[in-house]
Amino acid sequence: MTAFDRxxxxxxxxxxAPSPATPAADAIWIAIAGYGDDIVSYHRTRHAATAYLxxxxxxxxxxxxxxxxxxxxxxxxPKGFARAVTGSxxxxxxxxxxxxxxxxxTDNANDRFDVAEELNGLFDSAxxxxxxxxxxxxxxxxSRKSIDYSQFPFAERRRIETVIAKAQPVxxxxxxxxxxxxxxxxxxxxxxLQKEFGADLSVRPFETADTPIVLAEVYPxxxxxxxxxxxxxxxxxxxAQVRVLAKAMSYLDPVRLAAMLxxxxxxxxxxxxxxxxxxxxxxxxxxxxxxxxxxxxxxFALPPGIxxxxxxEAQERLRQALHVVAGPQTVPLSHALGRVTAADxxxxxxxxxxxxxxxxxxxxxxxxxxxxxxxxxxxxxxAVAGQPFKGSVPKxxxxxxxxxxxVPAGVDTVVLQEDCSVEPDAIAFHGPVKPGANRRRAxxxxxxxxxxxxxxxxxxxxxxxxxxxxGLAEISVYRRLKVAILSTGDELVDPGQEPGEGxxxxxxxxxxxxxxxxxxxxxxxxxxKPDDEGAIRDALDRxxxxxxxxxxxxASAGDExxxxxxxxxxxxxxxxxxxxxxxxxLALALWKGKPVFGLPGNPVAAMVCALLFARPALSLMSxxxxxxxxxxxxxxxxxKSKRHGRAEYPRARLGADGRVELFKSEGxxxxxxxxxxxxxxxxxxxxxxxxEGDLVTFLPYAGFGL
Length: 706
Known about the structure:
Elements: E1 6-11, E2 28-33, E3 39-43, H1 46-62, E4 67-71, H2 81-86, H3 91-101, H4 112-120, H5 159-163, H6 179-197, E5 201-203, E6 213-217, H7 224-230, H8 237-251, H9 254-261, H10 277-284, E7 308-309, H11 311-321, E8 328-332, E9 345-346, E10 356-357, E11 361-364, E12 372-383, E13 398-401, E14 413-416, E15 421-423, E16 426-431, E17 439-440, E18 451-453, H12 461-469, E19 474-478, E20 482-488, E21 492-493, E22 504-505, H13 508-518, E23 522-529, H14 533-543, E24 548-552, H15 562-570, E25 574-578, E26 580-581, E27 585-591, E28 594-599, H16 603-622, E29 632-635, E30 640-642, E31 647-648, E32 651-654, E33 660-662, H17 672-676, E34 679-682, E35 688-690, E36 695-700
Parallel strand pairs: 1-4, 4-6, 5-6, 7-25, 12-13, 20-23, 20-24, 21-22, 24-28, 26-31
Antiparallel strand pairs: 1-2, 2-3, 8-19, 9-18, 10-17, 11-13, 11-14, 12-16, 15-16, 25-27, 27-28, 29-36, 30-35, 32-33, 32-34, 34-36
């Protein structure tokens, strides 16, 4: 994705004659931002405006600059209208049909009312378009709205027009807010731009190519209050609207603008920035985007007098100190697995989209069925999934219908094929049959406009099926959290190297990297650093470029604990002594505004602390909320006398008999126990005598997202 260099906003007009020579309202105004000083121009006719735009876009493309062009009229019609007119759901097929029908002269004289009347004539009853001068009204085009839209295979409003209450329906052709006339006369001009620029131009949200020219539908009233506040003395409102909106678009963060351009319905279109009014208003004021607050310097500080902190209290203090730091972005579903939803996912389509058969069988009206043997003649034809029956089934007749096929008109009940005797022209079966049997209702799973996934949800494979069935090709998610990992200590060497006397292999970095990737985060490996303050400081500086840092080792108070010393003097260290085994010390600090989790150097203690503290903390920062591990009550396969004063988390797994087994040694140096185990047992702060068969709390690794 490349950023835009020019932002061109157009206030369109459906005038039937040239606008006045003196700039006036309800004409065509075009504003361009991105030159430093805004350019606002006035155009008396649609052809003159399109010619001006064409020349500007040619020059910008030749100079290698990218342009976003916004027009203030709908780019699409309610879902189903394109098919009713062209036989296709492709919005560009409808664009071509309108361009072929409309005649729009260089003097703005046009036949939009005649074309609307022709389109109305495609329907058996009164068509969807309305509004014209009283003297122009006819049986095919009423001057006022008197239409029942329930009779059409499409709605009165696009979905976006149900989201923005002030937006007018696209069928309205006359008087204030007649966007229908602007659309009929605007889309043919967009088709001219498509022909002129070809593959260098794309239209959002129908197309996603990263082209030099991008067209989008806009609605200045989204930031109407701010436009009013910035309108200059004697400035015509239409001019102020495009000027301020172009400025707002130019001030938006390019990543956020790209995400907004990806939103919307692929048949009906969408208004750029809808739902992001506050963000647009801030941009129009030239204010920076709203970002998460920085962490306070003392965010990890414990109250005076706190010495040993229980696990639950430490977790709650950590939860209160942190906040979401990942920003939203829009990604295709193919890249959404494991990502966290940044906003509610709303279905674009119902499931099922239409009533359909749940079995292979025969459909009929239940009103014609009684008790005992039933004999129904078969209509010619059948209903198949993807090939619906076009006609209506008369009462007292039946039709062959297969699983998943749309239920034809006249059918409300389906009888199983196995329950019927069949001849070429009739079926027989025993009644009664429950009305509505074997028939799935339209939208019985979910309906268009319904929230199907809430914000903060981690997307699983099953969710991809749900989102796809709802017609969503893209979804707003938080960007992946980026976490740095660092090991310190002269005693460490990387696996594969030859250890010197007294040296050991670094087991923590591979383990922590694996944990972070399993949780869906990106990893920056800062490597293994010796006990050298300069090298450690440089590594922490690199880590400050991402969202958080996990260190292991060097966080205590020994002579060579350089992590602790550096963070104490330069990073506002708070060393939490947690009443936990294994673990105890957990160093928390800020380094240049980024949280640092100083884990113990012992791999067993490092993993336990990462599971209990780093995992929920990073989950909260990533937008998924504070996560609690899964807790299962299981019978103990061991006996143990546990003393008061700390929580214990020995390594454990479930035996074949369903009992919890403990690793043979509780020594935190026994790394093999981490691999042997399937989870941890949680033994509470209080003293406890555990006998075999007593219920204990088992925390499976799977409950930690592993």
